[in-house]
Every structure is written in structure tokens, then in C-alpha cells.
Design brief:
Strand content of chain A: under 5%
Number of domains of chain A: 2
Order of helices and strands of chain A: HHHHHHHHHHHEHHHEHHH
Largest sheet of chain A: 2 strands, antiparallel
Shape of chain B: globular
CATH topology of the largest domain in chain A: Cytochrome Bc1 Complex, Chain D, domain 2
CATH class of the largest domain in chain A: Mainly Alpha
Order of helices and strands of chain B: HEEEEEEEEE
Helix content of chain B: 10-25%
Structural class of chain B: mainly beta
CATH topology of chain B: Immunoglobulin-like
CATH class of chain B: Mainly Beta
Oligomer: heterodimer
Shape of chain A: elongated
Mean pLDDT of chain A: 92
Number of strands of chain B: 9
Strand order of the largest sheet of chain A: 1-2
CATH architecture of chain B: Sandwich
Number of strands of chain A: 2
Largest sheet of chain B: 5 strands, antiparallel
Radius of gyration of chain A: 24 Å
Radius of gyration of chain B: 14 Å
Number of helices of chain B: 1
CATH architecture of the largest domain in chain A: Orthogonal Bundle
């Protein structure tokens, strides 16, 4: 009797396995539309990084060297203990492995990777910055992050012969920062200007702001070199295109099938960087004990009033003025920036490349691992604020496993020369 | 049932829309006004800011100079708007406008709304568009 039961159990198990294997079969062959969509996701379709009209040193190696050095230099903080690399660690794909970042204080959101962000018109989870160089400035003065001040940073560069030489070669002479009457130690422009800053001449404040913007430009020149590498998925896409035998597992193919079809992931995670760089409310929960994050809608005002935005005076002197009649104009994203209630609780679509080392996920690090992210989208709960655009996927557990296998096939070491992945020598 | 009807209608109209070319602009006819819309971006792809040409006429074909013209849009299935805030600008030629700042960030069914105030009348023209 026991043997009979055992045999029956094995038979049932075998049947279930067969059924799962059948429903999990990847499409063979792909349709023409599917092939086109797969090709649109491949890294080799990523166009070369265009220039930044607001950053004349964007593609300067000297600027990248300067930016690389600053990126790892802890002097650029209030405590001389925090650098950009504190929260954007190369070994973790330029994240920090924390729920939310810990620098001088605790940051409000999870540290996103920098890899490939040079392609995005918006930076930060809420897109409150519209250029790589402008973004680089904000953490330097955030009291919870570097906690420093633009005048302090200008003094550091001025006093360091190597920094100053490179800076002046790139951007021209620095203001006479040795004059402590005009440029007093302790003057702070942000987050609120103090009396020392307000007592400075307007021209001197502008000069310091310009130095600050240029430091951001140098950091941006470095960050533009941090690009994603060729993944197993890209190899598979290439194999499909070239017609040779692909080395891609059945599970990964099934995950890709779900990704581009039933799960509709490509609606937002599209293009070779797997992001449309737009803002969506997908019902992500807030961090326990914290109010829901307003996301994009909360960034609109600060973006418009940011003196370091694309339309601001520190960007305008590098090229022609923004022209609302010219469709190829610079600053178009800012000029025509969308707003409205659907941006309540909306966050920028993150790239899905290089997920293996960047957990936890979500703007508040809500998700410990990929499984919990996928489970969230499978359920698509009501949003805490605003409206969840996503619909429940209602996938089976084995389908979620396939999706996870596919997502992990996007992992690849960044396409970055080793020198840029480590602190500068010496 | 409603969804089925919508899909049936959209399968016809939206496909037609998707085939708009230089010589065949999208056309929307309302109660008072007719809009002919032509994206400068061909083919129409996502994630790229671009402009559209708009010709606005009355039903009899005479050009309309609107007192007020606004453009917006969205994806009804996802209940979100356009990623940008486009602006309609009069070109100086009667009935001809340029829509700056058009952008789509998702594949799927979109609607473009033209809010027109002219001739002491007000009308919203809706273009269904499948990307």
C-alpha cells in the first residue's frame, strides 16, 4: 500500500513537472515583433553618449581625472570623512548596499547606481536635477550627506596645487580666494545662506557658484565614463541577430518572453538601458515608520527654481540661450517638463542592468531582494498616495523565477577602464 | 463589452493613425473644428521630444485662429498623462500651429487632447494613437 502511494506521488509529481515544463517553454521561434523588441533592448543599440551643451568639459579626459579624484576625496565634506564613493561604491555597482544611505547623517532615499545615468535627462529618484553635473552638486551640500559648502570646496581646490592647476587649465583662473575678507571661511550658501554668505559681494557669490558648478562638471565628466557592460542577454540578442547558437538557458528565455509579453515590463523598462527615464507611481510602499514619499511631484518646484538647472545662469554661459522655437533646443526636457496629479508618488524608472550587486531595491530600499520586487509587481497593491499605474501580473511562482533568471542575465561588469573603478593612485 | 468595442474601434482607427505619413496626417473631426496633425518625428518612437504640425479648420475647411489652444494627453489604461507639458504655438499662418514638447514614454494606446476655444465655442478634440 505504501509503495502504491509512493508510486502515485511520484507519478503526480512527474506530471506536475511536465505541465510546468510545458507552460514554461520559451517561444521558439520568436515572432518578428518579438525579435525587434529584443534587439531594441540590446546594449549594442545604445547610441554613443551625446554631448552635454551645458558642460563644455563633458568629454575631457583632464576633467574626468579631476572629477575622479574629487569623487574619492573625503575632504569634500564637513567631516573630511565622506566622499561620493562612500555611497557610490564601485564594487557594488556604485551603490552602497544600504536601505538608505548613511553618510554624515541618514539620507532619505536609497543610493541609486551611477552606471549609465549619463543618458538620463533626469537624475535622482524624483528627477529633481536635470544634468549629471548639477546632480553632483547637491549631495556635497546636503547636511545628511557630505554636509559641506561650495565656498569650502572652492577653498580646497584653490589651496591644493594639483587641483588648482587642473581646474584653471580647464575652466580658467579661479577667483582670488586667498582674500578671506571677500571669501570668508564659514560662509554657507546652502541649505540656507548664512550671514557671512549674504554679506559677500554679489559678484563674489556668483564667482563661487561658478566654481562649484565647474566642480560638478568635472565629476560629471568622470561619471560619463561609467557605462554598462555586455551581458549574457546582450550575447543572446547578438546570437539571435547573427544566427549562431546562443548560450542562454531555457529559464532565461522564458523570463525574457514574460518580460516582453505577458508581464509588460518593457512598457517602462524599455531601450538598451531598460528604462524610459520617466516617472511612474507603481504603488511602492514607504519605509516603515515614514510617511509616503511624494516623489516626482515634490521635485517640480525645486527643479524649476534651481539656479544650477539647464536654464540657470551657471549653465547659460556655455552655449546659446535656450530657444523655445527650436525643436532641437537644449533644455527641452526642462522647458516642457510634465506635471500633474499623476506624478504624486511617482519615481524614475530605474535601469535593470546590474541588479546583482545593487540590492536592496526601490527608492526607499523597500525590497530586500529581486523576489520581493517581483512579488510586489505581481500583486500591484493600491498606492499609499496617488494612483498605482501598474496592474497585477498574476504570474505563477515558477514564472516569477523565470523573470528573475532573465533579470540576472542583464548583469555584467561595467564597461569601464580599471583605473576609473578605483581611487586615484597616490 | 465596452472594452471589446473599444478594442475593435481602436484596432481600426489606431492602426490608421499609426500609419500617418507626410501626406496623410492624423485627422480628428469634431462638432465645430477639424484638426490635422503631423508629427515631425517619423517613425513616431518613444522617449524622444519632438514637435507636431497642426492645421486647425472649421468643418467647411476655413482656417481657425484659436483664442485659446491647449494640448495634453495620456494613457487611459494607466491613468497617467504625457511625460511632458507640450505647448501649442501659432505659426502666423491662419490655422497653422506647432506643438512643441511632444513626447511618449510607453508603447500602447495614447490619447492626445486639443482644447480649442474659437468662434465663441469650445471643443476638445481627441486623437487616439497606438504606439
Amino acid at each position: 500500500m505504501t509503495r502504491l502511494r509512493l508510486a502515485a506521488a511520484i507519478l503526480i509529481l512527474a506530471l506536475v513537472s511536465l505541465v510546468i515544463a510545458y507552460v514554461q517553454r520559451p517561444p521558439d521561434p520568436w515572432t518578428e515583433d518579438e525579435l525587434n523588441l529584443i534587439q531594441s533592448l540590446a546594449l549594442y543599440t545604445l547610441p554613443p553618449l551625446g554631448g552635454d551643451p551645458t558642460n563644455p568639459v563633458a568629454d575631457s579626459t583632464q576633467a574626468a581625472i579631476l572629477g575622479h579624484t574629487i569623487f574619492f576625496d573625503t575632504r569634500f565634506s564637513a567631516t573630511a570623512g565622506v566622499a561620493c564613493s562612500t555611497c557610490h561604491q564601485p564594487a557594488l555597482n556604485f551603490t552602497d548596499g544600504r536601505v538608505v544611505s548613511l553618510a554624515i547623517g541618514q539620507a532619505k532615499r536609497n543610493a541609486p547606481s551611477i552606471i549609465g545615468t549619463a543618458y538620463s535627462p533626469w537624475l535622482y529618484w524624483d528627477g529633481r536635477k536635470d544634468s549629471l553635473w548639477s546632480q553632483a552638486l547637491a549631495p556635497l551640500e546636503d547636511p545628511d550627506e557630505h554636509g559641506g559648502d561650495r565656498l569650502q570646496f572652492a577653498h580646497i581646490v584653490y589651496a591644493d596645487p594639483d587641483y588648482r592647476k587642473t581646474y584653471e587649465m580647464l575652466f580658467g583662473p579661479m577667483p582670488n580666494l586667498a582674500n578671506r575678507q571677500r571669501f570668508p571661511i564659514g560662509a554657507r550658501a546652502a541649505p540656507q545662506p548664512n550671514s557671512l554668505w549674504l554679506a559677500m559681494d554679489e559678484a563674489d557669490r556668483v564667482a563661487v557658484n561658478a566654481v562649484f558648478a565647474n566642480l560638478g562638471r568635472a565629476i560629471a565628466a568622470y561619471e560619463r565614463l561609467l557605462l554598462p557592460g555586455f551581458s549574457r542577454f546582450d550575447q543572446y540578442a547578438l546570437a539571435l541577430r547573427e544566427g549562431y547558437d546562443p548560450n542562454y538557458t531555457r529559464l532565461e528565455k522564458r523570463g525574457l518572453d514574460l518580460f516582453i509579453n505577458q508581464a509588460n515590463c518593457t512598457q517602462c523598462h524599455n531601450g538598451p538601458l531598460f528604462t524610459n527615464n520617466a516617472f511612474h507611481n507603481t504603488g511602492l510602499l514607504s519605509r516603515p515608520g515614514h510617511l509616503p514619499d511624494t516623489g516626482r511631484i515634490g521635485a517640480i518646484d525645486s527643479l524649476q527654481s534651481d539656479p544650477f538647472n539647464c536654464l540657470g545662469q551657471y549653465a547659460a554661459d556655455t552655449r546659446q540661450q535656450a530657444d523655445p522655437v527650436n525643436p532641437q533646443q537644449r533644455c527641452a526636457e526642462l522647458i516642457f517638463m510634465g506635471t500633474g496629479k499623476t506624478l504624486v508618488g511617482a519615481f524614475r524608472t530605474p535601469s535593470l542592468r546590474n541588479l546583482a550587486k545593487t540590492q536592496p531595491y526601490g527608492h526607499a530600499g523597500q525590497f530586500e531582494n529581486l523576489k520581493s520586487v517581483l512579488q510586489h509587481y505581481n500583486n500591484a497593491p493600491d498606492a499609499m498616495i496617488g494612483h498605482n499605474e501598474a496592474k497585477p501580473l498574476n504570474l505563477w511562482p515558477w514564472e516569477l523565477n523565470a523573470l528573475e533568471a532573465f533579470l540576472l542575465s542583464l548583469q555584467a561588469p561595467p564597461e569601464v577602464a580599471p583605473r576609473w573603478m578605483n581611487p586615484p593612485a597616490g | 463589452m465596452t472594452a471589446a468595442v473599444y478594442l475593435l474601434v481602436c484596432a481600426t482607427l489606431c492602426q490608421a493613425n499609426a500609419q500617418a505619413r507626410e501626406d496623410h496626417p492624423y485627422q480628428v473631426t469634431g462638432t465645430y473644428f477639424v484638426a490635422s496633425l503631423q508629427p515631425a518625428l517619423q517613425p513616431l518612437v518613444i522617449n524622444q521630444i519632438h514637435r507636431w504640425r497642426l492645421q486647425l479648420t472649421r468643418l467647411d475647411g476655413s482656417p481657425v485662429v484659436a483664442d485659446r489652444l491647449q494640448v495634453n494627453g495620456g494613457m487611459p489604461a494607466h491613468d497617467h498623462g504625457l511625460p511632458t507639458g507640450p505647448v501649442a504655438q501659432f505659426t502666423g499662418e491662419p490655422g497653422r500651429y506647432t506643438l512643441y514638447g511632444m513626447k511618449f514614454h510607453m508603447q500602447g494606446d495614447w490619447q492626445i487632447y486639443l482644447h480649442i476655444e474659437a468662434d465663441d465655442r469650445s471643443e476638445v478634440l481627441t486623437l487616439n494613437l497606438r504606439l
